[in-house]
Design a protein that fits this description.
Helix content: 55-70%
Radius of gyration: 36 Å
Oligomer: single chain
Distance between the termini: 61 Å
Number of helices: 20
Strand content: 5-15%
Shape: elongated
Largest sheet: 6 strands, mixed
Strand order of the largest sheet: 6-9-10-3-11-12
């Protein structure tokens, strides 16, 4: 896990290495200062003059300045290294998620991915800062202080290690108790973020059904669960401070007792006042270094679960990849489904699609009709290889979609969903998702074809009108037409409309379809619709039921032989639906 995370250091390797070096120099200065002070005390006791005191004072001032300089430099380099590491880690996570297929995304909730890229990265970044700074300073301070205390006080220095087993045992017990709670709290973070995202995304439904109080209660329960878990964990970890204080002062009492006894007994020959004062300072430094290590231990314990969750994403292999020597050119828009069956998970008990056999010629217009849950959308998602068929073969342009370079295949298949996403930016910015190099003339032509140009020009800023996140400041029909125009700018060989004219009136719908016939005759067009009027002029109509093709043929053929199609057609016409 550490090796996997260390790959994200990259261009901040220099700062990462420099921080421990500077901290080592800082610790050396701090450990030498008590030694010099002890010498100064002994000189004063011996009756030295002001010149000696001034010399020692100047040396101490210089060492203090060096210690400060090394410490400040180490703080700067460690901050640079940790923040850079955090940036790279977020980037690596985001790029990894972008490579995922829908199958991979289904394994992680969107709220969980957000938590991993924010809270978890923040925890790991803080732990990284502690590791390259405090985790280096603590052991070095312990080691150097022990050496110096042995030099100054001999066997008396052994008193400092008496409390170490007590301290280590206490810390291990604290972490063993706290760790399960820390693991649980991150799962609760996922649920909290999921509640927030769901509420914000569905705020219109919340307002419409007056469910604000219910959502507040749901959020409050999730927040309370996190508070309770963190309180429980922090109460356990809080024992760390009093344990350290007990060890610190107990050790000082022992050293004072034995040190004073040695000074009195040997009349300062075995241990003098200067050495004893240095021993007390080194003892304090030794125990403070252990306290630092306990802080690092707690932080690493908290970050361990975060690191595991991050590595889960980084190690997740994309379910769909471009093969070696992939085909990079889509010959035409012909589509073949041969014995295709599909289920979303290998553990799923039933297939979403079963035994699909369908041939679509390049340039044909195909209408797909079926009830809710008939897997119409699932069928079209196999064409751009958003999922792979569980059984059988899907071919585009006569080539198995699994043999294509994914990017090249998807560049030639444009999908317009019923609930397409618009992004914050201008209309022009959103349209250029279809073609980043599209000219104004190409954008206007695509918008006219999608019946979007007129309402765009109705805005004061036209194509420079700002679109709020998710297209919140345009209507559902306008959003659908902008999404169709964006797809047309790709100049795809296959255009798929997944019930993407459901929010426009029948006249506009008819004008869009008429434009398709006139301006993109060579593009294969697949239209999923609930209205027969939207697809009755298609070359082929496909009726789906229960994940299977129930029937297919032209409008007139289905009217003649298929009772279900006749009933749907008759009921929609009796309801006043215009056809054409």
């Amino acid at each position: 896990m550490l090796k996997r995370l260390a790959k994200s250091i990259r261009d901040y390797r220099k700062s990462t290495i420099l921080s421990p070096v500077l901290i080592t120099l800082e610790v050396i200065m701090e450990c030498l200062i008590p030694f010099i002070i002890a010498k100064l005390i002994n000189e004063i006791k011996a009756g030295c003059g002001l010149s000696v005191i001034a010399t020692y004072g100047g040396l101490l001032f210089l060492m203090a300045c060096l210690s400060l300089a090394f410490g400040a430099a180490a703080g700067a380099t460690s901050a640079t290294a940790s923040s850079g590491f955090g940036k790279n880690l977020r980037r690596d996570l985001f790029y990894r998620v972008q490579s995922f297929s829908f199958e991979n995304i289904d394994r992680f909730s969107s709220a969980s991915l957000v938590t991993r890229m924010t809270t978890d990265v923040f925890n790991v970044q803080n732990a990284f800062m502690m590791i390259i700074r405090v985790a280096v300073r603590g052991p070095l301070m312990f080691l150097f202080s022990m050496v110096m205390s042995w030099i100054m006080g001999g066997r008396l220095a052994l008193m400092f290690v008496l409390v170490v087993p007590i301290l280590v045992f206490g810390l291990v017990m604290i972490i063993r108790k706290a760790m399960p709670t820390f693991k649980r709290v991150f799962r609760r973070y996922d649920k909290l973020n999921e509640s927030i995202a769901e509420n914000v995304r569905g705020i219109r439904a919340v307002k419409s059904f007056v469910r604000e109080d219910y959502e507040k209660d749901k959020f409050g329960r999730a927040a309370e669960d996190i508070r309770a878990d963190f309180t429980r964990a922090e109460r356990i970890v809080a024992f760390n401070a009093p344990l350290m204080q007990f060890c610190l002062y107990a050790n000082m009492v022992i050293v004072l007792l034995f040190g004073s006894e040695i000074i009195i007994r040997s009349t300062g020959l075995e241990l003098d006042v200067g050495q004893f004062s240095a021993m007390l300072t080194y003892g304090f430094q030794i125990l403070m270094s252990l306290m630092m290590l306990s802080m690092v231990y707690v932080m690493i314990t908290i970050a361990e679960e975060s690191a595991r969750r991050i590595v889960e994403v980084l190690d997740e292999e994309p379910a769909l990849k471009s093969p070696e020597n992939a085909v990079t050119e889509v010959r035409d828009g012909s589509i073949d489904f041969e014995g295709v069956s599909f289920k979303y998970s290998k553990r799923a008990e039933r297939f979403a699609l079963s035994d699909i056999n369908l041939t679509i010629k390049s340039g044909q217009t195909v209408g797909i009709l079926g009830g809710t849950g008939s897997s119409k959308s699932t069928l079209i998602q196999l064409i751009p290889r958003l999922y792979d068929a569980s059984e059988g073969v899907v071919r585009v342009g006569g080539v198995d979609v699994r043999d294509y370079d994914l990017t090249k295949l998807r560049d030639q298949v444009a999908v317009v969903l019923q609930k397409n996403e618009l992004f914050s930016g201008t209309i022009r910015d959103n349209l250029r998702w279809g073609d980043k190099d599209a000219t104004d003339e190409e954008m206007i032509a695509a918008c006219k074809l999608a019946q979007a140009h007129d309402f765009i020009m109705g805005f004061p800023k036209g194509y420079d009108t700002w679109i709020e996140q998710g297209g919140a400041n345009v209507s559902g029909g306008q959003k659908q037409r902008l999404s169709i125009a964006r797809a047309l700018l790709k100049k795809p060989k296959i255009l798929i409309l997944d019930d993407s004219t459901s929010a426009v009136d029948t006249r506009t719908d008819a004008l869009i379809r008429k434009g398709f016939r006139s301006f993109i005759p060579e593009t294969t067009k697949i239209i999923i619709a609930q209205r027969v009027a939207s697809i009755e002029d298609a070359d082929v109509l496909v009726l789906m039921e229960g994940g299977r093709i129930a029937d297919y043929g032209a409008h007139a053929e289905l009217l003649e032989r298929n009772e279900i199609y006749r009933e749907v057609y008759a009921s929609q016409n009796r309801g006043g639906e215009q056809v054409g």
